[in-house]
Structures are given as structure tokens and as C-alpha cells.
Design a protein that fits this description.
Blueprint: H1 6-24, H2 29-35, E1 45-46, E2 51-53, H3 80-87, H4 94-102, H5 104-110, H6 127-134, E3 139-140, E4 143-144, H7 146-162
Antiparallel strand pairs: 1-2, 3-4
């Protein structure tokens, strides 16, 4: 049996964990399209050019949410808890979105924010919906598209301008609130 150095063993372990974690979050986008019907009462999916899913405006537009910084959709008024999470520099990926939709308040409390989320709707298994949302990501296989990078820069500038301002609507949904 070959003896591996600590560095090689670490690299192999990290590669194996990344491979299994990616597979663990793989959902069925087609099933997610159907499951998204539960979400569209509060959320829409619309690019600059077209409305893909006409939905509510209580929550932010979810077009390009995978790969977008947390609490950064331009023009949406987020609550302090989710803004604090966004201020940590977190970016929505499939794993974090799945965790968020399972328990939004717990997600906020464990990722740099605090306080109760207004999003009372929870998805026990959000992997399919998140896989569906990932099909509308502004990220390409090689990285962010030019449009996505420009949008992120604009959102970062907007976030800097809104720091310190009070917001009266959480970035989650209930009867009156919306989700990120």
C-alpha cells in the first residue's frame, strides 16, 4: 500500500468531498418547474428582456439568483437580518439556497444575521426548485457572464448606498413579506 503525504491526502479528501457535495444538491429542474408554482405567488422570474414566470412582487425576482450576492436584487427592500447576511459577502449557490428555503430564519441566524425571517413558507426539500432556478443563472460554465458581472457590480454599489438605511420589509415572504 502506498503511503500518502498529508498534503496529498488532504487534496484527495477535499476533491472527494466536493464531488459528493455537488451530487448531493443536484435536483431535477423539470420537477422544480412544477414545484415553483408554490413560489410564484410571491416571486417572479424575469430577465431584462422577458418574463419567464409571471408571479408576485412580494419577494424579489429570482432570475439569476444562483450566483447573485445575498440580498442584492436592485430595487427590493430587504430586512436587516438578510442584509447582514449579504454584508458578509455571501453569494447564493445551490447549497445555500436549499438551506435557506428549508428554514429561512435559521439560515439568517447562522450566517451573519439575526432575527426572525418573514418568510414563513418552507420547502422540506428545495433541491428541485433550486435546480430549476439554476437554469436561469447568469453564470456560465466558465464563470460569470459579462451581463452578470455588470449586474453584480451595480448591486454592490447599490448595497453600499443602502447601508445604514432602515428597511421595513424582510427579504422573505409571508402574507406581506418576500424572499430572497
Amino acid at each position: 500500500m502506498t503511503k500518502l503525504s498529508g498534503t496529498k491526502l488532504f487534496a484527495l479528501t477535499a476533491a472527494a468531498l466536493m464531488a459528493t457535495s455537488t451530487a448531493a444538491f443536484a435536483g431535477d429542474a423539470e420537477a422544480g418547474a412544477k414545484e415553483f408554482n408554490k413560489c410564484k405567488s410571491c416571486h417572479m422570474i424575469a430577465s431584462a428582456d422577458e418574463t419567464i414566470v409571471k408571479g408576485g412582487k412580494t419577494g424579489p425576482n429570482l432570475y439569476g439568483v444562483v450566483g447573485r450576492p445575498v440580498a442584492s436584487f436592485d430595487g427590493f427592500k430587504y430586512g436587516d437580518g438578510i442584509l447582514a447576511v449579504g454584508a458578509t459577502g455571501m453569494v447564493w449557490d445551490e447549497a445555500s439556497l436549499i438551506e435557506y428555503v428549508a428554514d429561512p430564519t435559521a439560515y439568517i441566524d447562522t450566517h451573519g444575521g439575526s432575527g426572525r425571517s418573514k418568510m414563513t413558507f418552507k420547502l422540506k426539500d428545495g433541491s428541485n426548485v433550486v435546480a430549476y432556478l439554476a437554469t436561469f443563472s447568469t453564470m456560465s460554465d466558465e464563470g460569470a457572464s459579462d451581463e452578470g458581472a455588470e449586474a453584480t457590480e451595480t448591486m454592490d454599489d447599490d448595497m453600499d448606498e443602502t447601508k445604514g438605511q432602515e428597511h421595513n420589509q424582510e427579504g422573505e415572504h409571508n402574507q406581506a413579506g418576500g424572499s430572497n
